[in-house]
Amino acid sequence: MPPSFIDNYRHKGLRKKLVEIVKMNGVENPKVLDAIGKLPRHLFLESAFEELAYEDKALPIGDGQTISQPFTVAYQTELLKLQPGMKVLEIGTGSGYQACILSLMDVEVHSIERQENLYHKTKNLLSKLGFTKIKTYFRDGFLGIPEEMPFDAILVTAGARDIPQALLNQLKIGGRLVIPVGEMATQKMLRLTRTSSNTFDKETLEDFKFVPLLKGVVKK
Ligand code: SAH
Questions:
Q1: What contacts 213, CB < 8 A, 6 or more positions away?
Q2: What's the pTM?
Q3: In Å, how far from its chain's centre is CA 160?
Q4: Under DSSP, is residue 25 helix (H, G, I), strand (E, B) or coil?
Q5: Which atom of ligand 1 lies closest to the CA of 97?
Q6: Best residue among 45, 213, 215, 219 to mutate for probing ligand 1, ranked by most atoms within 8 Å of CB
Q7: In what order do the strands lie in the sheet with 151-156?
Q8: Domain ranges in the chain?
Q9: Cα of 21 to ligand 1 centre, how many Å?
Q10: Which residue of 35, 132, 135, 142 has the fewest CB atoms within a 10 Å radius of its CB?
């Protein structure tokens, strides 16, 4: 980590407590908990939010977007059942925090953001933090990344009204799509597992509140 990014004992202590909260709320996968314990979340936020970085809360990251709640990040990551070397697509790069958690799971990460400002800001941060293997894209996530398919896992970190067909098409057989879906202010977390070229097993899980998954891109 470059010297300009300070991660001190206080931050580390607060992270330990955060891991306990995430664990208490039901996340069990030790590798996921380890990743939450390792990654300095305050570095993904404006300094004004440093004091709040290790509370289990979503926080603003500019451009009208938020960094997801740590529990949500851990919960979605656990649902993907990742194994080292898997190829993973994230929709909604945002701050880059979730993409880094995925990268700490030793998977190949591809992440799409639709807001150009945020895309550039986060691409820059990821490279400064040394997460050089994460591939970021300025695109509409509804379309996935056809030239990189198929994916072992696809994670959507914004609330969708329905499930984008392109994302289902880009899953490997046996692969999983984790996506919050709902028409109102809250969404149900869904996990779709591709069981054959044209069949999917669907699990409906807990309620969450995400910023909306929107079509098209926003140029600066
Ligand atoms: N994973 C992020 C969460 C950011 S909030 C993090 O760890 O910080 C969700 C993000 O999804 C926002 O940045 C929003 O701009 C983005 N988004 C919404 N619709 C999108 C789409 N169709 N394609 C790509 N990104 C999208």
A1: 91, 92, 141, 142, 156, 158, 159, 160, 161
A2: 0.97
A3: 14
A4: coil
A5: 7
A6: 213
A7: 135-138, 108-113, 87-91, 151-156, 171-181, 187-196, 199-208
A8: 9-208
A9: 25
A10: 132
* Gap from CA of 130 to ligand 1 centroid (Å): 21
State the burial class of residue 139 (Cβ atoms within 10 Å of its Cβ: 0-12, 13-18, 19+). middle
Peptide bond into 212 cis (omega under 30): no
9-208 folds as Rossmann fold (3.40.50)
SS (H, E, C) 65-95: EEECCHHHHHHHHHHCCCCCCCEEEEECCCC
Atom from ligand 1 closest to the CA of residue 73: 7
Ligand 1 atom closest to 98 (CA)? 7
Supply the residue whose CA is at minimum distance from atom 2 of ligand 1: 94
| CA of residue 124 to ligand 1 center, whole Å | 17
